[in-house]
Design brief:
With about 90 residues, the chain is mainly alpha-helical. The chain has 2 domains: about 55 residues, no CATH class; about 30 residues, no CATH class. A two-stranded antiparallel ribbon has the order 1-2. Helix 1 crosses helix 2. The chain is elongated. The N and C termini lie far apart (about 55 Å).
Length: about 90
């Protein structure tokens, strides 16, 4: 698929400078940047879809882990201390 982009002059100059530094072409650099952006957006969309799925499940079952327990668990893990993973349960 051929695509035409109107790239402002100041951006074109920056792309050309980066491409020279990396010993590649401006075209290859732009393709790489677009591919990375598409992958990041796909990852973000998957993250949001999973969050919505989990929220729906939580609302349906009423099972959740209180935020305080999650933060305590994460703080212990970040400090390199052993911590039991909190379990979901019905919360009010």
């Amino acid at each position: 698929m051929a695509v035409s982009l109107r790239v402002p002059e100041h951006v074109r100059k920056r792309i050309a400078k980066l491409a020279r530094r990396r010993k590649t072409t401006p075209h290859a650099l732009m393709l790489e940047a677009i591919s990375e952006k598409v992958a990041a957006e796909e990852s973000r969309a998957a993250f949001h879809a999973e969050a919505h799925r989990r929220l729906k499940s939580m609302k349906k079952t009423g099972a959740a882990i209180p935020a305080g327990e999650v933060f305590e668990y994460l703080e212990l893990r970040a400090a390199g201390k052993p911590a039991a993973r909190p379990k979901a349960r019905r919360v009010a």
